Known about the structure:
- The protein is of the alpha/beta class.
- It is 46% helix and 14% strand.
- A 7-stranded parallel beta sheet has the order 3-2-1-4-5-6-7, sandwiched between helices.
- The longest helix is centred in the middle third of the chain and has 29 residues, at 104-132.
Amino acid sequence: MDLGIQGKTAIVCASSKGLGKACAISLAQEGVNVILNGRTASTLDQAVEEVRNQAASGVTVTPVAADVTTKEGRDLLLQACPDPDILVNNAGGPPPGNFRDWDEKEWLSALNANMLSPISLIKATVDNMCDKGFGRIVNITSAAVKAPIPVLGLSNGARTGLTGFVSGLAREVANKGVTVNNMLPGIFATDRLPGLMNYIAESTGKSVEEATEMRRNLIPVKRFGDPMEFGQYCAYLCSVQAGYVTAQNVVLDGGAFPGTL
Length: 261
């Protein structure tokens, strides 16, 4: 399927590894020029090479080494691409833990990274998208927005705040050719997986292997997600064909969410 976005330009935040990188690869395969972002220059350089090797002919891949959760980092991204057609918001989630151990510092950090920073980038780009009559904004959040996970309370709170804001914004700009959607990943085989499994092992008294097997068996498809599955769905949401899909929270979790809605 031709997604109709060849020649468009995308900012993909936190895309030097994990789900962000998978989104960047999938967009580049569709002919989208991508602004790749990461905090560590060496990791970002490796990602740039990987994305370029898989990109469609003629695609440009521009690295921006910056922390997207800071104003300075976002300014650098916007200097590299002040008028993107596509914005994929992403940032590493806060660590798991017990809310009794978190003070205002931890809460403000989570809110800044997973709510306020994406809203800032949306604010800087959405009106230009509306003026052009085309725009795609995809926010990578978490399945915990629909089914909160107790040990991920910081993420539950911050990402749900972003979800509420997006719900209103998406409907405001829907008639301008701009869609705004959230992708809610379950557990994917990314660099963050070992840390989560270690935490589960420590909190349950099981070995890491036992904890991993236990968590995998809770997923109906009996496996963790492949990041490229996630990236390809992101590319679809950015497509011309997905122009009627907006204000949605799309769960990609192998069937783990038990509800009907």
